[in-house]
Amino acid sequence: MKKVTVHVTLKEGILDPQGQTIETSLHSLGFTEVEEVRTGKTIELLLNDQDNVEARVQAMCTKLLANPVIEDYQLHVEEALQS
Amino acid sequence: MKKVTVHVTLKEGILDPQGQTIETSLHSLGFTEVEEVRTGKTIELLLNDQDNVEARVQAMCTKLLANPVIEDYQLHVEEALQS
What we know:
The first copy, chain A, is α+β, with helices and mostly antiparallel strands. Chain A has a single domain, classed as Phosphoribosylformylglycinamidine synthase subunit PurS (Mth169, Chain: A). Helices cover 30% and strands 39% of the residues of chain A. Chain A has two helices and three strands. A three-stranded antiparallel β-sheet of chain A has the order 2-1-3. Chains A and B meet through α1, β2 and α2 of A and α1, β2 and α2 of B.
C-alpha cells in the first residue's frame, strides 16, 4: 500500500477570500501580528500497490483533485504502514 | 517575519463525507486502486516577529482555526524569506 499526500494551494496572485476572512477574524481576536493568511487543502490517498503511482496521482490531480487554472499541487508519496 | 503552516486534519474515527465523495468520484474515473481518501486543510500564516510564536499560533488554533473536538492540528514554524 502507498500513502500519497496531495497539497493543493492557490497560485500566487489568486485572491483567497477564505484566507482574508481568517485574517480579519484573527485581528479581531487580538492576533495583530498576522500579516497574511493563505489557505489550501490536503488530500490523503491510500492506494493499492500499482506501477506508476506518481503518474496515476498526477492524473487524478488534473482530472479531479485540483483546478490547474488557479491551483498548484504537490505530491508526497510514502510507503503506508500496514495496520 | 515567521511563516507558520498549520495542518488541520479530522481525528481518526470522524466521518469524512468530502473524502468519501472524492473516493467515489475517483473510482468512477477508473482509479480503482484508491482504498481510502481523507481530506484536511492547510492554513499558511505570515507573522511579524514576536515572542512565543508557537504558543500564539496554538491559541489561534484552539480559538479559531481548528475545532479541537473533531480535528487535530500540527504546526510547522519557519523563518519567512524576505521579499
